[in-house]
Amino acid sequence: MLNRPGGAQGPGGFTVPFALDTDDVTNYEFGWKTQLFNRDLRFNGSIFYVEIERFQTTIFDPSITNLFFSDNAADAEIWGIEGDIAWRPYSLPGLTIAGAFSILDTEITDVLTPTNDVLVGSELAFAPGFQGNMRLRYEWDFAPGFTAHIMPQITHSASSFTDIIEINKIPARQLDDAGSFGRRGDGRLVDRGVCRQSDQRTGRNQRDLRQRPGAHDGEPAADCRYALLGRLLGYLRREWWTGRFAIPAQSPY
């Protein structure tokens, strides 16, 4: 990558480089895969440490030059743990509980460019401290040739920033997601989902009905506060046995 203001003189004898060096990433990881309780429970995961040297980023600092330039501006590190779990109890046929999580601790450990755009101790971009999801699915035989299911689920991603330099930092979106209901029969699968998205930049909530493959275009938005209950009641009244949200039975949903 070439810098347009390459050669510009900054404070302390710093010179804007004409080209960047490669950044180096060293990763140390310990992982496990387990099957417990007669294989009813699966738990996989890993613990890791990542060391980043000469982290590349773009900088705008008028004390150096009045143009943006890129540099190997910092060193950073990441500590983390992640895992996924799935439980299908033998004593409760049709029930599946599954989830996954990620916990991160990221930090700028050293600043190599003489600027206040990058600060020691800052978090890395798009690295939320916690992300996780949990899904409960229960299937049962509803009628000859039909299998029904209910599948409440929740997904959460904590706050993060869009950049490591101070002038570009804005909160990234925090996501919350919830639930679906469906039935199968005669080679058809009906599945509905509702998504709620919290936008930390505006403080507003966005709600929409998640479109599965084959769903009708232009489906109206749904309010998550009532959507799960409404979908379940609709299921019990059979009002949604119309195939409007039909997708192939081999779908993983």
Gist of the model:
With 253 residues, this protein is mainly beta. 6% of the residues lie in helices and 51% in strands. Strands 1, 2, 3, 4, 5, 6, 7, 8, 9 and 10 form a ten-stranded antiparallel β-sheet that branches.
CA gyration radius, whole angstroms:
25 Å
Give unreliable regions as ranges.
Answer: 200-253
Q: H/E element string? A: EEEEEEEEEHE
Rough shape? elongated
Q: Approximately how much beta-strand content do the residues carry?
A: over 45%
How many strands, which pairing sense, and closed or not: the largest β-sheet? Answer: 10 strands, antiparallel
Overall helicity: under 10%
Total DSSP helices? 1
Average pLDDT for all residues: 75
Based on DSSP secondary structure assignment, what is the total number of beta strands? 10
Backbone structural class: mainly beta
Distance between the termini: 43 Å
Question: What is this structure's SSE topology?
Answer:
Layout: E1 24-36, E2 41-59, E3 69-87, E4 95-111, E5 130-143, E6 146-157, E7 174-185, E8 188-199, E9 204-210, H1 224-237, E10 246-248
